């Protein structure tokens, strides 16, 4: 049975916490200060430590030094002096979570409900690391280059905590897979994981999509709608392309992160949120702050544990490993047995892949379709981008005689792909309004449907 150590200098608080913890199926020990806590740790190593931040003889964070780093222990800090700084410091040290006095007992129960799985979690991380050594895999991620192994180590450390994670990397580097892997290795892994692209939702609807709305709160709101925060309660919410979120909504997101409370559109009733946030951006976040795309206070709140995803061109032989994996999936799905020629593998290794893993996956699918049975040669499908160009540039070819409408269509789709599907960013690059871009895409969709 899991064992919990409760450290607080208030006798009533110790008694109340002890009763709740025991009801949740834990054995308990109590201490009024650091000295007594150290004695209890020697008597029986705890699985969970619930400790006040301010104790008569020091800080609750001092107990991190007393715990055996080889044994997984979940530390939950309690403070009567709420501050983002103290919470961030606690999470960076390895705390699983923190609670503010007066303690919300429902939130405490929700945290304890996740704790008994910590032992299984350690075994799962160990299993994943073994899988990495054998096949270059780590959960849903693939790659055995030094850059990826370093990333796996960082994910393995941050996943079991409640720290907010900021994923930074170019488009196509696999940020959503990394976020999913963090969730799968966390204590929340049996709760929902929801992903939302902040740049793909209409600015007029994003607040409703994030926080929900009440029936009749605006034209077209015919029923109550639960937003992403409510639907991911107890789990993880992945906010992709966070710099594309409207500034006015970033203020409300910051409030949710600091208070754990939000309101649906059309009501003043606050709803409690127990959600871990993982955010991602393909921009340099500090440049986004300087350009006014990202609030500085939100950036610091999200940047508790930054993870940098390496571009494919910096991952050594991972392009070959990934390409073979994508091809194996296609062979399995279609009952074929195609393979790459040595020349094709050399070509894959030499290409800079400015679109990263996403571009590589699309290319493998094209080559698979174009190739005859058996071997996929180097010329099965042309590389779309000139390898002599800088990795950040791409180009399209407009032959003489092409109509302006078709040239316009190709430019829009190429720009949208270059921007990783973020419509707001693509509209800015093209110099048109987001509404105009949506209208063009709807026209193309209707035209394609009528042509079928």
From TrEMBL:
The modification 4-aspartylphosphate is found at residue 52. Residues 141-369 form the Sigma-54 factor interaction domain. Keywords: ATP-binding, DNA-binding, Nucleotide-binding, Phosphoprotein, Transcription, Transcription regulation. Pfam families: AAA_lid_14, HTH_8, Response_reg, Sigma54_activat. Gene3D superfamilies: 1.10.8.60, 3.40.50.2300, Homeodomain-like, P-loop containing nucleotide triphosphate hydrolases. It comes from Pigmentiphaga soli. The keyword Phosphoprotein applies. Residues 3-116 form the Response regulatory domain. SMART domains: AAA, REC. InterPro entries: AAA+_ATPase, AAA_lid_NorR, CheY-like_superfamily, Homeodomain-like_sf, HTH_Fis, P-loop_NTPase, Sig_transdc_resp-reg_receiver, Sigma_54_int. This is Sigma-54 dependent transcriptional regulator.
């Amino acid at each position: 049975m899991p064992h919990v150590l409760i450290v607080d200098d208030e006798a009533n608080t110790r008694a109340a916490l002890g009763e709740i913890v025991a009801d949740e199926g834990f054995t308990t020990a109590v201490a009024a200060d650091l000295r007594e806590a150290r004695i209890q740790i020697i008597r029986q190593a705890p699985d969970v430590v619930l400790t006040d931040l301010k104790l008569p003889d020091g800080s609750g964070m001092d107990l991190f030094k007393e715990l055996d780093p080889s044994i997984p222990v979940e530390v939950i800090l309690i403070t009567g002096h709420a501050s983002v700084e103290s919470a961030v410091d606690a999470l960076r040290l390895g705390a699983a979570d923190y609670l503010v006095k007066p303690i919300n007992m429902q939130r405490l129960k929700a945290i304890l409900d996740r704790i008994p799985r910590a032992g299984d979690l350690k075994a799962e991380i160990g299993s994943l690391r073994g899988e990495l050594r054998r096949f270059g895999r780590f959960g849903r991620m693939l790659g055995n280059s030094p850059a990826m192994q370093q990333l796996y180590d960082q994910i393995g450390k941050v996943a079991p905590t409640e720290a907010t994670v900021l994923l930074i990397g170019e488009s196509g580097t696999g940020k959503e897979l990394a976020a999913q892997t963090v969730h799968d290795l966390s204590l929340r892994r049996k709760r929902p994981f929801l992903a939302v692209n902040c740049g793909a939702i209409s600015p007029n609807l994003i607040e409703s999509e994030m926080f929900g709305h009440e029936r009749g709160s605006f034209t077209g709101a015919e029923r109550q709608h639960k937003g992403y925060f409510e639907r991911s309660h107890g789990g993880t919410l992945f906010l992709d392309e966070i710099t594309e979120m409207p500034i006015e909504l970033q203020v409300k997101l910051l409030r949710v992160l600091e208070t754990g409370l939000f309101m649906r559109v059309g009501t003043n009733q606050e709803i409690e949120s127990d959600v871990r946030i993982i955010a991602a951006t393909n921009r340099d976040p500090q440049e986004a702050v300087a350009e006014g795309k990202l609030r500085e206070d939100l950036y610091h709140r999200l940047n508790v544990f930054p993870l940098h995803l390496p571009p494919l061109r910096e991952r050594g032989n991972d392009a070959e490993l990934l390409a073979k994996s994508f091809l194996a999936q296609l062979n399995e799905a279609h009952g074929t047995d195609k393979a790459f020629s040595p020349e094709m593998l050399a070509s894959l290794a030499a290409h800079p892949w400015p679109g990263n893993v996403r571009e590589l996956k699309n290319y493998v699918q094209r080559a698979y379709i174009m190739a005859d049975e058996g071997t996929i040669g180097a010329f099965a499908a042309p590389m779309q981008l000139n390898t002599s160009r800088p990795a950040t540039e791409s180009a399209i070819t407009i032959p003489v005689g092409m109509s302006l409408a078709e040239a316009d269509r190709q430019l829009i789709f190429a720009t949208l792909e270059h921007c990783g599907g973020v419509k707001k960013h693509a509209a800015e690059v093209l110099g048109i309004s987001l509404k105009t871009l949506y209208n063009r895409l709807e026209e193309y969709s209707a035209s394609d449907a009528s042509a079928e």
